[in-house]
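We treat protein structure as text, and this decision shapes the records that our systems exchange. Such a record has a labelled line for the sequence and another for the C-alpha cells. The record that follows is passed on verbatim for readers who wish to inspect the format:
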Amino acid sequence: MISFLKTFAPLAWRNLWRNARRTVITLIVVSVGFWSVLIFNAFLNAWSESGKQTTLSVLIGEAQIHAPGYMDDPNIELLMPPPDPALRAALDDPAISHWASRLIVPGVVQSEYKTLPVSILGVDPKDEMIVSSLPAQVVEGRYLASQTDAGVVLGESLAERLETGLGRRVILMSQNTSGALSEQSFDVVGIFDSDKGTEDFYAFTGRKAAQDFLGLKDEIAEIVLRIPDEKLLDQTVATVQKAAPDLEVKSWHSLSLMLAASDTFMKSFVFVWLGVVFSIMAIGIVNTQLMAVFERTHEIGLLRALGMKPRQVLWMITLESAFMVGLGVLLGLALGALSIFATYDGIDLSAFSEGMEMIQAADILYPDYDLKGFAIFSGIIWILGILVAIWPARRAARLSPVEAMRYAS
C-alpha cells in the first residue's frame, strides 16, 4: 500500500489540477457546504444551551427531590421533611454546586378585582438568589428579604391580569393541614419579568411565612439541585437517590419532557442539514469526476494498454476524490473556526427579545467550538465524498483499452 501511494498519490494530485477551474469550483462547493454545517451546528448548540440554561435556572434546576407521588398530585398531604443528615451529606457532593428547599402548594390569588389560580412558592431568599435567576429579574420593588418575609412577589403578567401592582394587597388561599381553606392577605413587594408561563402561575413568599400560613412546621415540597457538569448529572442523581431511598430524585430530563425533547431535537437536526448539504456536494463531486473520466478516456485506455490494472485505475480516481474532498473539508474547517471566532463575543438577538422570551432563550447566543462535532462531521463528509466518487472511478476502471483508444480517435 505504501509503495502504491508513493506511485499514485503524486499522479492523482497532478490529475486533480489539470482542470483547475473545475476543481476550484468543486472545492468551493465542498468547503462552503461544510462551513455551513459547522456554523449551523454551533448556532444550534448555542441556542439549545441558552434555552436549556435559561429554563433550568428559573425554577427547575438540574435535578429535584420530592416525596413519592407529589409530582403526580402536588398537594399539602404529600410533603416531605427537611433533609436528614444522610441526605445532607449527599447534597454536599462536589458535583452539586448549590441546593435549595421550597414549599410549593396549589392555591388561589385574589385581588380587588379578580381571582386566579396560582402556585404558591415559599422560598428561602438567600438560597434562591444562588440557585434561581428569578430574584435578579425583579423589575419593580424588591425580592423577598428572608424566610419570614410575608410579602409576595408576582409576575408582571399575573399582576396585570389581577389589575394590581406594587404596594397593593392580595389574598392567597390554599388548603391547610386540617383540610380547611386558609386565606391571608400579603403585600405585593415586588414584580418580576420572566417568561409568561412563570409570570402567570407563580407567587413567591417566604418559606417560613408560607408554612405558618398553612399550619405547617418545617415540611417542604421539593429540593432543587444545581449540577453544572452535565456529564456528572446521572451519577450524582443516583448518589442522592441512594442517600434518600424513600424519596424521588429526578433529573431535568424527567422533570421537563418538553425541554428534553427540544434538546434532543436540536442536537439531531444538524444531521438533517448535513444530509441536505451533502446531497448538493455529492452532485458536484460526481459531476467533476465523471467529466474527468470522460475527458481522459483516451489517457485511461493508454494506461490500461501499458499494463495498469483496473483496480489501480479505480484507486487512482478514488485518490483524486479523496484529495479534493479532503482539501475542501480543511478549507471548511478553517472557515468555520474563523467564523466562530468572529462571533465568540456573542450574537445579539435583543431585537427579537419577545420571541426569545417565548422559547426561554437568552438575548445573546454564544457559539463555541465543538471539537467532537468538528471531528465527526469532517469524517462523515470525507468518507461519504469518497464513496460517491466510487461510481465514476468504477466506470473508469471498466474501460476497455481497445474501446477507449477507438473512442479517442
Summary: Residues 133 and 330 are 41 Å apart (CA to CA). The chain has a mean pLDDT of 85. The chain has two domains: 2-55+260-408, 68-246. The two ends are 35 Å apart (CA to CA).
